[in-house]
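Per your request, structure below.
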């Protein structure tokens, strides 16, 4: 009886427990049925998500174009590889649709991807061991080309699949890299998994990222457990909105020309840095801009310099700054170009350190201020500031030319120079570009006033933004005047002075003369501050050599600034050698490309000679005839008949000009004293292979005088600058004497008085 009583009690307890559990479970079911939620998760949404597949449809990133519509950056298709590992994926299929043999798969993929088999096998085995449905291959399987994708598909490896993904591509490689910048793929983790988006990192790619990026779309549909679309998939498609196209002011042909010559100079002279800007001075459009070191945006690894130096790196400009000193003096009405002064040295009073001209303070005796500009006299600049303009008034012109403000160019990271203008010695040195720092783009903006009758233009690089779908222009940049520091009359007088620098016999810019166009400009040779011991670095290469020029001077279509820091020069070379190579090639060829009519030769009243027909004519008769016309014929060879000339029948040439006449029995002439241009004309006539050494005029040659020559022969020749002549211009433009390297200390400056 006692045992039965205990059993009945325990049965009752268990019954109560089971009833309680039933009520809890039933209540839970009733709650779930009523609310449709479990732990705050809506079951209908969860179920929808489980049976639905959703994929992002990436918007195509907008293209970056040059001003003429040439593509500079665009998305091209690439492929991301992944492997399906779940056996269930192959159910009801006559062949495997999943990776059935990891070893065999790795063996076939490795040679195509150029990696070790073990690396691929490890990825696959790890995924199998962890029960993953599919796996990607990281960097190994990303951004694969169409060719690689097809090679893998040809192997018919089961379980290997591809998703298309965009890859940003720059067809011109190292081309305006600091302006265009680059974009790269960024992985972002979302609720639906990892998304891969292209995002701008530097340059225009970064600045215009929202414009270029567009808006992604998506596609969703209902699926089965194997990710296959149902017969009634309830499909939803939201089309992506592609990014808009950004047109830059860059001209691909001019930029390519600039990049090519910059690369040649970089290889030959191994400078620390180089910068160049080509601008339309009438509008402010940047047609080309380049800097070295540079990088290829398709593989931006180990980049030496992220800064776009022409706008981001201020430095002491040197004598190019004298443009603005002379402009201020003319505008103030205190300039008399014919007035003379004693060049060499200048010291306003005993408390101010002496200023010296760049030729160790020797000067050129008593010269006019016009000649002082041509010769780039530091003394002339200092005297104009101190005695004529006034230091305070000149500072107003510095501000009016915009040297204390950014230009506002539509590029990132623009910097502003620092005007050192407190002590008397600083003010004097600022007049010739020492101590004070500016950027190249600040100088270009300021110098545009000389072209535009006194009005400065704002430089810019974004031409327009175009809707990639409709082709409609959404935004367009218009040229903008941003100040008028000088009058039209002053600007005209400055253009005349700049022309004299290049074309006058006393000018420092002789290396920048062009055959077809009249050039004006100003040379500069800026000392470099010593980062360790104070003062300035010494040595003939420790300078920033520069030139700011424009052409053609009757109506300038191009303005170019080019600088080179610490080039490795030959003993016979000056800083103008690499600069003039860049400037002359870019300007001459660009003006021809832009269909700018060449300037007519100015004969100063001397009648030009029309060159006669000489081919197949008697050598003796032609020589006599040309000498009678006042020309200087150089007969090449001993033949009796002329077969070629460097001039064509009908050409207009000036008297006393050298003319090359190639006979039917050519022999090597004596090239001593010939210019590089004359040698190259001679070499072109015979298609000779040439190699030159140095600059100036020919002093020696590899082929003996009088030796028979024929097409394709090798000709080496050395050039030197004649003693007493100016070596290629720039070395006579050192803003500060190399013997005057030390800056004034603050204590010395504090005791000076104006």
């Amino acid at each position: 009886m006692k045992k039965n009583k205990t059993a009945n009690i325990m049965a009752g307890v268990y019954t109560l427990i089971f009833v309680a559990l039933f009520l809890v479970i039933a209540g839970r079911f009733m709650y779930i049925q009523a609310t449709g939620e479990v732990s705050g998760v809506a079951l209908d949404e969860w179920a929808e998500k489980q049976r639905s597949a959703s994929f992002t449809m990436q918007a195509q990133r907008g293209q970056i174009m040059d001003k003429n519509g040439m593509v500079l950056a665009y998305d091209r298709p690439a492929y991301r590889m992944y492997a399906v590992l779940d056996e269930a994926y192959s159910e009801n299929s006559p062949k495997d649709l999943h990776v059935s043999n990891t070893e065999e798969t790795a063996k076939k993929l490795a040679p195509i991807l150029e990696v070790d088999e073990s690396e691929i096998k490890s990825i696959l085995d790890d995924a199998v061991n962890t029960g993953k449905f599919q796996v990607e291959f990281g960097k190994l399987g990303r951004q694969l080309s169409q060719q690689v994708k097809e090679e893998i598909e040809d192997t018919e490896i089961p379980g290997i699949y591809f998703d298309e993904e965009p890859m940003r591509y720059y067809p011109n490689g190292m081309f305006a890299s600091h302006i265009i910048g680059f974009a790269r793929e960024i992985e972002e983790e979302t609720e639906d998994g990892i998304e891969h988006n292209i995002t701008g990192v530097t340059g225009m790619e970064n600045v215009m990222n929202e414009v270029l990026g567009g808006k992604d779309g998506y596609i969703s549909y209902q699926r089965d457990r194997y990710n296959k679309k149902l017969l009634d998939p309830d499909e939803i498609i939201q089309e992506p909105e592609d990014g808009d196209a950004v047109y830059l002011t860059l001209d691909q042909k001019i930029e390519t020309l600039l990049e090519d010559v910059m690369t040649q100079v970089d290889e030959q002279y191994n400078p620390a840095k180089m910068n160049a800007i080509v601008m339309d001075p009438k509008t402010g459009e940047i047609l080309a801009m380049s800097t070295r070191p540079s990088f290829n945006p398709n593989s931006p690894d180990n980049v030496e310099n992220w800064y776009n130096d022409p706008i981001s790196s201020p430095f002491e400009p040197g004598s190019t700054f004298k443009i603005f000193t002379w402009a201020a003096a003319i505008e103030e009405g205190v300039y008399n170009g014919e007035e003379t002064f004693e060049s060499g040295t200048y010291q306003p009073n005993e408390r101010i350190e002496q200023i010296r001209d760049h030729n160790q303070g020797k000067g050129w005796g008593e010269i006019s201020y016009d000649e002082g500009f041509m010769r780039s006299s530091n003394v002339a600049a200092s005297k104009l500031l101190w005695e004529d303009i006034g230091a305070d008034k000149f500072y107003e012109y510095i501000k009016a030319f915009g040297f204390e403000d950014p230009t506002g160019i539509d590029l990132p990271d623009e910097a502003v120079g620092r005007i050192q203008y407190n002590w008397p010695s600083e003010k004097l040195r600022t007049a010739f570009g020492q101590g004070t720092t500016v950027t190249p783009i600040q100088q270009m903006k300021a110098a545009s006033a000389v072209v535009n009758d006194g009005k400065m233009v704002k430089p810019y690089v974004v031409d327009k933004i175009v809707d990639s779908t409709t082709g409609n222009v959404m935004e367009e940049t218009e040229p903008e005047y941003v100040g008028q520091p000088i009058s039209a009359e002053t600007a005209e007088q400055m253009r005349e002075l700049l022309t004299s620098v290049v074309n006058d016999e006393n000018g420092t810019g002789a290396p920048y003369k062009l055959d077809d166009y009249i050039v004006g400009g100003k040379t500069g040779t800026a000392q470099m501050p010593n980062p360790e011991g104070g003062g300035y670095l010494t040595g003939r290469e420790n300078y920033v050599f520069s030139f700011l020029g424009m052409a053609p001077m009757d109506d300038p279509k191009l303005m170019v600034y080019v600088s080179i820091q610490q080039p490795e020069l030959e003993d016979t070379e000056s800083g103008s050698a690499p600069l003039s190579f860049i400037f002359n090639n870019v300007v001459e060829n660009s003006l021809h490309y832009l269909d700018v009519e060449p300037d007519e030769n100015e004969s100063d009243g001397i009648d030009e000679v029309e060159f006669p027909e000489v081919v197949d004519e008697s050598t003796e008769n032609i020589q006599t005839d040309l000498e009678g016309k006042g020309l200087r014929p150089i007969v090449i060879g001993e033949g009796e008949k002329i077969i070629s000339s460097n001039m064509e029948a009908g050409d207009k040439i000036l008297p006393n000009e050298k003319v090359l006449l190639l006979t039917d029995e050519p022999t090597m002439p004596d090239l001593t004293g010939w210019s590089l241009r004359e040698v190259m004309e001679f070499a072109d006539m015979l298609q000779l292979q040439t190699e030159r050494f140095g600059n100036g005029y020919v002093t020696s040659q590899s082929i003996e005088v009088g030796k028979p020559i024929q097409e394709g022969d090798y000709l080496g020749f050395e050039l030197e600058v004649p003693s007493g002549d100016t070596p290629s211009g720039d070395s006579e433009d050192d803003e500060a004497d190399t013997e005057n390297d030390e800056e004034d200390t603050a204590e010395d400056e504090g005791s000076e008085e104006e």
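Confidence is low (pLDDT under 50) at residues 602-606, 723-754.

Regards,
D.
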